[in-house]
């Protein structure tokens, strides 16, 4: 994971996928360059969906979650 993005890990984000322009929102799990697939370039994992190719770190948008769950 890119060190600068560690404060955003676990935050609700949205990103537009580089390949087809689909908007994906969820919890940011990982962002960086995959050592096993270097040809993919910059990728991220959102809500356990791996291999989302993105243009740059600026394409990640921090969002407010729609639902807040409070412990009982």
Essential attributes:
globular; mainly beta
Brief summary:
With 72 residues, the chain is mainly beta. It has strands at 12-16, 23-33, 42-46, 49-53, 61-62. The model has no long low-confidence stretch (mean pLDDT 90).
Task: Tell me about this structure.
The chain has one domain (about 5-55). By secondary structure, the chain is mostly beta strands. Strand 3 (about 40-45) and strand 4 form a beta hairpin. A 5-stranded antiparallel β-sheet has the order 4-3-2-1-5, with no helix packed on it. The chain is built from no helices and 5 strands. It has strands at about 10-15, 25-35, 40-45, 50-55, 60.
**What is the tally of helical segments?**
0
Report how far the terminal alpha carbons are from each other.
33 Å
Domains counted in the coordinates: how many? 1
Oligomer state equals single chain
Write the element-wise H/E pattern from the N-terminal end onward: EEEEE
Query: How many strand units?
Result: 5
Large-scale geometry: globular
Q: Order of strands in the sheet with the most strands?
A: 4-3-2-1-5
Report the mean per-residue pLDDT as an integer: 90
State which percent range the strand residues make up: 35-45%
Radius of gyration from CA coordinates: 13 Å
- Helix percentage: under 10%
Please state the structural category. Answer: mainly beta
What's the structural blueprint in terms of helices and strands?
Layout: E1 12-16, E2 23-33, E3 42-46, E4 49-53, E5 61-62
Antiparallel strand pairs: 1-2, 1-5, 2-3, 3-4
């Amino acid at each position: 994971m890119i060190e600068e993005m560690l404060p955003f890990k676990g935050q609700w984000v949205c990103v537009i996928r580089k390949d087809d322009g689909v908007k994906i929102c969820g919890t940011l799990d990982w962002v960086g360059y995959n050592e096993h697939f270097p040809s993919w370039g910059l990728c991220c994992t959102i809500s356990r969906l791996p291999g989302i190719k993105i243009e740059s770190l600026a394409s990640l948008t921090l969002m407010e979650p729609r639902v807040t769950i409070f412990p009982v």
